[in-house]
């Protein structure tokens, strides 16, 4: 049996042209972006990250690299490999960049730097016009490229508002070798002595995770995964990570359930470069009861269906570089409650298109308020979707990169 066209589209990586965005963003914006692409001309760009699977960086780079190629910029995406010990080290770095006070001894530094060096021996970017390195995992790569005629950019996607000082001092020796550092928000700036640019992430509205679904498709998907339709759904979609505060979500839900009957669904997957995820998942499972469903699956259609059907979407992070799961839920017109941190507060205007909270108690009260007031839920959702259309779609991210490449384009 052959697949129908919508099924095929949802099963691909998601190559979408600028023309497909025009009905959403308008002709004027589409023409402006196309004009910038023509002025940049034919370039070759390389992105370098640590995983093709799981996490926000992958969610960004998959559609972005495809769109860049579609408009004439030859764009590669290189993956660094690592051992479990290496990814254990880089997970520490990730946590310390977000403020964790833990040790990063000399042996960890040696593992980290040696594995990146080994990757550098087989990542060939000499013919590129720009190289973009993402997050701490491949950061020292720049140190091993002898001749850098092209600009190198380091893009940090995590919350860098209060990094662990000794760790940040150590990493600056590598960051300082780049032409520019790119952060999600101005408050993450670090006075590095190199150019600092600020680019907010974005989503692909046509991906399987974000495309429109019919009510019957949503019903079938939720039924298939054992999510009951008899009570309002409260959900959080995120990696199983301590910074996402899953235990705080469970506690807030239990407080809210005393006033309004509802079901909590926690769904997520583990990025291949995150060795802590499985341990945190098992810890969560030990603390649940019959009213809480935990799903560790990689199913974008399920995420889509859940975000469309849930009465409340939570993202109660205690640190968050940006929070694409917030963006995705807002695009679907969901009522979102987010932690008052990082990029979440850049997306949510408290009381206008969602709610920001600073505690478990506040989260519980907002859950109850939304569940008891369907009109409020609809009003927040309408405003949320419009804010994403205006600010956080992949077409806007593409335009940001066209501006950066034009600014740093060097004469032949």
TrEMBL record:
<dbReference type="InterPro" id="IPR052078">
    <property type="entry name" value="Trehalose_Metab_GTase"/>
</dbReference>
<keyword id="KW-0313">Glucose metabolism</keyword>
<dbReference type="InterPro" id="IPR001296">
    <property type="entry name" value="Glyco_trans_1"/>
</dbReference>
<comment type="similarity">
    <text>Belongs to the glycosyltransferase group 1 family. Glycosyltransferase 4 subfamily.</text>
</comment>
<dbReference type="Pfam" id="PF00534">
    <property type="entry name" value="Glycos_transf_1"/>
</dbReference>
<keyword id="KW-0328">Glycosyltransferase</keyword>
<feature type="domain" description="Glycosyl transferase family 1">
    <location>
        <begin position="224"/>
        <end position="386"/>
    </location>
</feature>
<dbReference type="InterPro" id="IPR049438">
    <property type="entry name" value="TreT_GT1"/>
</dbReference>
<feature type="domain" description="Trehalose synthase N-terminal">
    <location>
        <begin position="47"/>
        <end position="189"/>
    </location>
</feature>
<dbReference type="GO" id="GO:0016757">
    <property type="term" value="F:glycosyltransferase activity"/>
</dbReference>
<comment type="subunit">
    <text>Homodimer.</text>
</comment>
<keyword id="KW-0119">Carbohydrate metabolism</keyword>
<dbReference type="GO" id="GO:0006006">
    <property type="term" value="P:glucose metabolic process"/>
</dbReference>
<protein>
    <submittedName>
        <fullName>Glycosyl transferase family 1</fullName>
    </submittedName>
</protein>
<dbReference type="Pfam" id="PF21269">
    <property type="entry name" value="TreT_GT1"/>
</dbReference>
<keyword id="KW-0808">Transferase</keyword>
